[in-house]
Design brief:
- The structure is a homodimer of 186-residue chains.
- Chain A is mainly β.
- In chain A, 12% of the residues lie in helices and 46% in strands.
- Chain A has helices at 57-65, 78-86, 94-97, and strands at residues 2-5, 17-18, 20-25, 30-35, 38-42, 47-53, 67-72, 102-103, 112-113, 118-130, 133-146, 150-151, 155-156, 165-168, 171-173, 175-182.
- Chain A has a 7-stranded antiparallel sheet. Chain A has a 3-stranded antiparallel sheet with strand order 2-14-15, with no helix packed on it.
- The longest helix of chain A has 9 residues, at 57-65.
- β11 of chain A pairs antiparallel with β1 of chain B.
Chain lengths: 186, 186
């Protein structure tokens, strides 16, 4: 038996979501933030979408740069995720303050995060407002993956990588590698 | 050191994503499918987005019904997810064949899944094409949650619920409850 809520105060029943650190380098600034609201949008062409509030510095920097990178973090980088998620680039230089290690992209001026196990280079293809967030749509022009983090076919190797998942309200969690199952309809 | 791919054949480096079973009841059909591509889009108003290929029967049924429900499954419902994800409503009546238990929604004609630990009632607010998928945007008018599945503030109670996560290529996994951490920037 379920309880029904129509005045939705705490809209976070959909977690856990993987943490993606997203950001860019514009003419004037480099800035990243942790984002849990994101999704693949299309296989062919590969498109990836990230939701960003208009209040965030990252919103401004990506809008100027017309490109962004998406960086997936290991569970042991949870502190970095909290730092990049709960502070604002309006107040401080997050990359310098939190000693974020950057690495050059192949096609973009915006760097990727060296400590990510996977990173996407995205050219900004569309921005669309949905309520209090904007959907930034990226055309994925390159994927960087840590050697041995993925098995053949691009499936995460859960013996090697513990992806960082966000559960809402500053709670984080990761996967149970022993629970992995390959399941077909019959 | 990372490997760079520019011809992206297996675009699934972003998983694990939670499985959501989405669907609706139109004048003529009731149909659901498993979807791993989804995201919250806005807190206020609460908006939730789901990506659906034009090929899917669910695309047609939601387009007709102008509403849909989003249903989150426990890890032990993995077989149901595979059945609802890897078969098409064009070929069969999935609800009947897989004995999906339905429960009435509060505001919609479309039912929710009785076996979900959380379910959203959504009125269709927007549809927009992104590559080979369409983004269905739902205005969330009601949330159903299984008693005791969430703690105060709407955070999943990981001692009670093992959410079903999709890893790509028919692999599934769940969380490690012992890895839960509450982390602030300092």
């Amino acid at each position: 038996m379920k309880k029904v809520t129509t005045h939705i105060k705490h809209f976070q029943y959909f977690y856990p979501y993987t943490v993606a650190v997203v950001g860019a380098k514009s003419e004037t600034r480099v800035n990243y933030m942790s984002a849990a609201w994101h999704s693949a949008l299309s296989f062919n062409p590969p498109l990836f979408g990230v939701l960003i509030s208009k209040k965030r510095m990252t919103h401004q920097v990506i809008s100027e740069a017309r490109e962004f990178t998406v960086n997936f973090l290991d569970y042991d980088r949870v502190k970095l995720s909290a730092q990049m998620g709960r502070t604002s680039g309006h107040d401080r230089d997050k990359v310098a303050e939190f000693q974020v290690k950057l690495a050059p992209a192949k096609f973009l001026r915006s760097p990727i995060l060296e400590e990510s196990y996977a990173a996407f280079e995205c050219k900004l293809a569309d921005v669309r407002a949905y309520g209090d967030h904007d959907l930034f749509v990226g055309a994925v022009v390159a994927v960087h993956v840590e050697d041995k983090s993925f098995r053949t076919g691009g499936v995460l190797d859960t013996r090697k990588v513990k992806p960082l998942l966000y559960l809402g309200s500053d709670f984080y969690i990761t996967i149970d590698a022993d629970s992995l199952k390959h399941i077909l309809p019959d």
